[in-house]
Amino acid sequence: MSTPPNVLWIMADQLRFDYLSCYGHPHLHTPHIDALAARGVRFTNAYVQSPVCGPSRMSAYTGRYVRSHGSTWNGMPLRVGEPTLGDHLRDAGARAVLVGKTHMVADKEGMAWLGIDPESEIGVRRSECGFEPFERDDGLHPDSPRQGWSAYDDYLVAHGFQSDNPWEDFANSGLDADGELLSAWLLENSRLAANVPEAHSETAYMTNRAMDFMQEAAADGRPWMCHLSYIKPHWPYIVPAPYHDMFGDDHIVDPVRSEAERQTGHPLLRAYRNARVCRSFSRDHVRRHVIPAYMGLIKQLDDNLGRLFAWMDETGLSLTTIIAVTSDHGDYMGDHWMGDKDFYHEMAVKVPMILADPRVAADGTRGSVSDALVEMIDLAPTFMAALGCEAKPHIVEGRDLTPILHGTEGFARSYVISEHDYHWSEMARALDVPQEDAHTTMIFDGRWKYIRCEGFDPILFDLETDPQELVDLGTSQDVRHIDTRARMEAALLSWGLRHHTRITATPAVLARQKRAAEDGILIGFWDAEEYEAVTGIAFADLKPQGPP
């Protein structure tokens, strides 16, 4: 390929890695995602930097850990000066375009302090994670006023789905046998067919919008990265016909949990399992009712991706576009007596990651599986490298995955990190934990998963002997576990003490700092002879330097 490839970065919100057939689900067949994996590399140890939407996405969009960018939970603005993938790609002459969801909250106070108009070109980029918003739609607005509508709401109205809140009344509600409209925010209504034809659903609509962008981009000529970010299969769990009844009780995998877990003495885990969503999904009838709808949403996603990939084949875009499929976190679905996400068991913090690179250099790895430890923040430097952007290790903390994609040496990681700020939660209130202490951090080295819980005992799982993470070894007095906890705590300390805020430390700045003596900053020299021996510059020739 003589020119940089394009990048299509697909993210499906709350998609579990093990609810795809290429990752081993026995009943949910996803042939189109599987076919993409056959053309690329499927990663089996990909982890997000936070098991909740907002901070996970801010890490993905910056290539930086949560402790570095500071957006620690949903609704926490990404500070106005935080560099993003979109900023880096624009520097290289490429477009970075959003179609779908980001969960970004703009730093309005920061923009006001700097005098940035939110409606200006700079203001829009600062409000959209650095993306050029072709179409943004975060969904999740059941009581949205008219001025808060998305383009998708307008689309529904234009197609005859008229109401005060079409997103809620059509895309995320269903009709019972008597024709009564019932909201899918209530889990008991999950098995209804969504009150909208599949062709007009959120998933189908956003797929169409991605194709609209790619058609438009063909006339532009610049390389691009399109972030196609689907709202589903995130709750509300409801899907249009025919997907609403494709799956039933026989397709539900048994939950991963034990009675010992339920009786845990760990205060934080006990508080998690006592939270409303966990109590709900711990009930078997809730799992049985919701999981078929969740599976239907994933099946619908796969079918729409098949439609998209076929269109890309027809237009030739498949030959010039790197395609990545992943998620921002998983979903417990009752495993470990928990619901939603927010903690660090595999089904929440590990995600699917598939990359198909059309370049000849990737021919040798097509259809391969990598068990390397990778993080969501690795996608940013990978896309930067593909689109010709210079490496920026003083900003981007992720690592370029190209060596894995091309079967060369150069990628190695000893552990992955994930963080969670639970100050907002039922858990923090139940335990009376102040905001500054409501923080947990996971470190995983491929075998041992260690979770530091500020103010509480740590949690430790050995995934070699206990792959289902049923036995907490956080307080075990076995010397092997004591030594492992000490080693993992030391690794966390080493990680935490690394440089992570020197985003202005460009190579030019670092080089200038090493030239203090040459620039006339004379510290510790005894005489001119010593100065001349060290610098090779005649002291008499030393002249004041102007601005760099």
Note down, in words, how this protein is organized:
There is one protein chain. Strands 1, 2, 3, 4, 7, 8, 9, 10 and 11 form a 9-stranded mixed beta sheet that branches. The model has no long low-confidence stretch (mean pLDDT 94). A hairpin with a 5-residue loop joins strand 14 and strand 15. The relative contact order is 0.15. Helix 9 runs parallel beside helix 13. It is globular and about 95 Å long. With 548 residues, the protein is an alpha/beta fold. The chain is built from 20 helices and 15 strands.
Helix segment tally? 20
Mean pLDDT: 94
Distance between the termini: 39 Å
Structural class: alpha/beta
The percent range for strand residues is: 5-15%
Number of strands: 15
Radius of gyration: 25 Å
Specify the overall morphology: globular
Q: Looking at the chains present, what oligomeric state does this protein adopt?
A: single chain
Biggest sheet, in brief?
Answer: 9 strands, mixed
| Helix content bin | 25-40%
Quick summary:
With 548 residues, this protein is α/β, with parallel strands linked by helices. It is built from 20 helices and 15 strands. Helices cover 33% and strands 14% of the residues.
